[in-house]
């Protein structure tokens, strides 16, 4: 190749792509067609939605947003599919598979509302429980709205491709290229590049260390029998993935102070909803485009007298006059079926008061379920492995083949009690302990351990 021709090829490649520097993945390269999706108002909205919601109020380094996370997931998805295509050319590769997976990865979080999971799990679930709404449903709505408003972006993707992208986002498997469903939202065993990015990114910004190495896992992955399998020596690395996820939920995502602020913002939204119609936005993509973390500022700086209660709650957050953690109980397995929501709730707790003036509205009961991503199952039981000596034969690994120190149990239930009034902490705690005594003589709570 002559020097002129080489320089011409380099110039053309630069014109066809754009490079974005990322603190986690280094220099990420995206082709111009995906840059056009990034430059839509739908995707740019994610710049104003904190990846970790209210965790930022406790860990000030956790200021990253859904925007950069989605870029990272798209980068990893593209890299993994390209690697599989290059190392396993014998597979029947989907002609538009790379494009569809990259687009699904980029758009998988378009449906997140203000403060990420808080919006769906606390606000919408309470305001509109009948809708059973999730951010995945929101992503579908926003993706379809994006395409309707920017039809020129999908000139080389047909209707079947668009449906495929939506199924990849939702993790709804079809017969088309089955292994591609293991990449963005893996419902088979919960190992996907979404986790690869957010575990690395969240640990980085939280200032926490992770021993999970996603780059090794990607390097030692292989498609066998229409699914992504892993080299058996990476089995402990996979346990590190799920342990890191559990640890982040335990230490950061569900930190007591973060959860208290979650409830405060939820209450501010509930008080403002009749005026600002926040919950109505899940039915209208044009209105949902306006929904991001700045809604808190809109309430705070409004002169509308109907927003006074919401403004008072936000003012408490600014002054760190927060709802308070009262007490908690780590539920033993043999009591999980007994300590249900019917048995442990606000009404049951205040029934034990002794002229303390407690009201149901003073108390919030939080049932925190932590696991390895597949409820009480070991997700590694759903992972297939291969040996380099027999690269096309898959097998499962028992825990005893990995380590005797991996968990025996993969899900735990924590019942945590919060109050909106710090003056009522002691009487509420006493009531909670008396209620627990109905099921266990000497309950070991953990209020003094936090």
Textual characterization of the structure:
With 450 residues, this protein is α+β, with helices and mostly antiparallel strands. The chain has helices at residues 3-16, 32-38, 41-44, 66-87, 97-107, 117-127, 135-149, 159-170, 193-206, 214-219, 235-253, 256-276, 285-288, 295-300, 308-318, 346-350, 425-436, and strands spanning 17-22, 26-31, 221-224, 227-231, 324-331, 363-371, 385-387, 390-395, 411-419. The protein has 2 domains: 20-256, Hypothetical protein af1432; 323-372 and 410-450, Alpha-Beta Plaits (2-Layer Sandwich), CATH 3.30.70.2760. It contains 17 helices and 9 strands. It has a 4-stranded mixed beta sheet. A 3-stranded antiparallel beta sheet has the order 5-9-6, with helices on both faces. The chain has a two-stranded antiparallel ribbon with strand order 1-2. The radius of gyration is 24 Å and the shape is globular. It starts with a helix and ends in a 14-residue tail after the last helix. Residues 5-14 have low confidence and may be disordered. It comes from Rhizophagus irregularis. InterPro entries: dGTPase-like (IPR050135), HD/PDEase_dom (IPR003607), HD_assoc_2 (IPR045509), HD_domain (IPR006674). Pfam families: HD, HD_assoc_2.
The largest beta-sheet arranges its strands as 3-4-7-8
Low-confidence stretches: 5-14
Largest β sheet strand count, sense and barrel closure: 4 strands, mixed
- Secondary-structure element order, as H and E? HEEHHHHHHHHHEEHHHHHEHEEEEH
Shape call:
globular
Give the CATH level 1 class of the largest domain: Mainly Alpha
The separation of the N and C termini measures 67 Å
Pfam families: HD (PF01966), HD_assoc_2 (PF19276)
GO molecular function, one term: dGTPase activity
Keywords: Hydrolase
InterPro entries: dGTPase-like (IPR050135), HD/PDEase_dom (IPR003607), HD_assoc_2 (IPR045509), HD_domain (IPR006674)
